[in-house]
Amino acid sequence: MSLPNLLTISRVPLMFAVVALMYADFQWAPTLAFWLFIVAGLTDWLDGKLARQWGEVSAFGRFMDAVIDKVLVIGLLIALVNGDYFMGHNITAMLLLLCILCREFAISGLRMATASKGLVVEADTGGKIKTFVQLNAIGWLMGAKMFAKDHREVFGGDEQIWIHVIQIVGISLYALSAVLTVTSGYSYFRRHGHVLFSK
What we know:
Distance between the termini: 38 Å
Helix content: over 70%
Oligomer: single chain
Shape: globular
Mean pLDDT: 88
């Protein structure tokens, strides 16, 4: 177990800790949750950087990095929807989350089907942009809760306006990520879906 792989795996316990803090009711819990999420995001950047620099890029590392990224994102999105971070638009948020889940399971199935025939479906630009937007949406939504609970004084007397703006940015990015999730999924199937029907 190299350091890059340990950093990759560390995102799983970090995800559990972040979700627990999102539901905790003590002061500074939202702030701790937000910064632990940032740490988890940084490990995603650092593990790849170290693996490339040290020449330790492996099939295990590539596989686990992709799987754990999905676990992290989906786990936090479920916690956000269930935790009322969407200004009362929980039904819409849940429907978009179901679209995201359907896409992720479908692409995972496609990858298994292609792997059984000796082919590898690498993450394309659309998939990477989708993940980037998802992580940003999570950060903005968690940031809104952090400011609302722990740092209202930062905005002086206009805290309600600014917190509302931060929430709207997060919700907009979440909706955009759902659209990108579906479109990038379509792109994967358009390029590799023929494998499912070949003998």
